Amino acid sequence: MTSPAAARRARQVEERRERIVAAARELAEEHGWEAVTTRRLADAIEYSQPVLYGHFPQGRTEIVTAVALVGFEELAAELSPSALGAAGTDAERVRALVTAYLDFAARNPATYDAMFLLSVVIPFASDDTPAVVRAGFDAIAGTLSGLESPPDDVATAAEVLWGSVHGLAALYRAGRLSAGNDDGRVEALVRLVAG
Question: How far is CA 46 from CA 22, 51, 66, 138, 154, in A?
Fold first, then answer.
C-alpha cells in the first residue's frame, strides 16, 4: 500500500509534468516550436532546467512527444461518434469527421506538428502504437465501417482518408491551396468517400 506522503509526491510529480507539457504547448502554439527551449520553458513554469530534465530525461524530443500524446487524445475525442453527433446520412457522417479533423488541425497547429511532423518517440502502425494514438484512427475506421456500403478493406480506406485529410490540413497551412475553396474541397472528399 502506498503511503499518503508517497501518493502526494507522485501526484505533485504528475502535476509538475502536466504543467511542463501545457507550458511547452502554449509556447509552441504562440511562438512556434523553435521557441520551446529548456531555458524558456523553465522560465515559463518557474522551475530550473534540471527539474525539466528530471521529468523529461530525453529533453525536447520527449516533451514534444508528450504534447503529441495530449494532441492525439484530444483529436480522438473530437472524432469520436459522441462528439460528431448523430449525423443521418453517410455524407453527413463523413463530412462531420473531415470537418472535425481539419478544425482540430487549424486550431492547434503546433500540436498538430508535434503529432505528425516533428520527431517523436511514438511507434506508429505497429502493435506497440499507444492506444491513445490508435483511438483517432479507430474513429476514422469506425465512421467508414458505419457507412451503408462500407469499403471492403476498412483499414486501408481509413489510412487513405486519414492521408487525404492530413494532406488537406498540411497544404492549407502551407498556403498551397486556392483561397476560399475550403468547403469545395471538403465536399469533393466527402463525395469520394461516401458517394
Answer: 13, 10, 19, 39, 48
